[in-house]
Write a structure and sequence with these properties.
mainly alpha, 2 strands
């Protein structure tokens, strides 16, 4: 496999660092401005590069196995059984590169923004309902208030304007 600094920049992983030759690790250190000694061993250079990239947030630290946990079980007869198993620090972000983490963060930010807009929309709808209900409030009749469902919007009755006596005489003659 041919080494490419561009490929490492796109998806930096600890696994990739472990497969690189010493010269490849020196190129990675040079790209990220990590000070190393070319006289150091490959393992020492890899450790320095990895520590600096983890500190810079480019890489995620791999979980290390903790001490082996042992479980001893005794039954009612006094017989003992034991089991040993290694435990791993649970970290769901292990194996994700920086680009994936940035994308996951951006998706969470967008999801949060959508939820905030939905909340704001609900508040505006509630406010709209409050304003509409205050405009169409029923008038109490003899101290009793009619239910909102029975209130209808009825156009006002327009009574004709009173006519002057002169117009009344003219109108009466015209009708005859």
């Amino acid at each position: 496999m041919e080494f490419s600094i561009e490929e490492f920049k796109r998806s930096p992983t600890v696994e990739a660092l472990n497969t690189y030759r010493k010269s490849d690790l020196i190129l990675v250190a040079g790209y990220y401005d990590i000070t190393i000694s070319k006289a150091d061993t490959k393992q020492a250079i890899r450790d320095v590069v990895q520590e600096n990239l983890v500190a810079a947030g480019v890489l995620i630290r791999e979980p290390k196995l903790r001490d082996v946990d042992a479980v001893v079980v005794t039954d009612g007869d006094g017989a003992e059984a034991s089991a040993q198993f290694p435990t791993v620090d649970p970290n769901p972000l292990v194996g994700l590169n920086t680009a994936d983490l940035k994308l996951a963060k951006r998706l969470k930010e967008l999801d949060l923004r959508v939820k905030q807009q939905e909340y704001d929309t609900q508040l505006l709808r509630v406010r709209q309902c409050e304003l509409e209900s205050s405009r169409v409030s029923p008038r109490p009749v003899n101290g009793l208030q009619a239910p909102i469902a029975s209130v209808r919007s009825v156009p006002p009755v327009v009574s004709p304007a009173p006519r002057s006596p002169v117009i009344e005489k003219v109108f009466t003659r015209a009708v005859k």
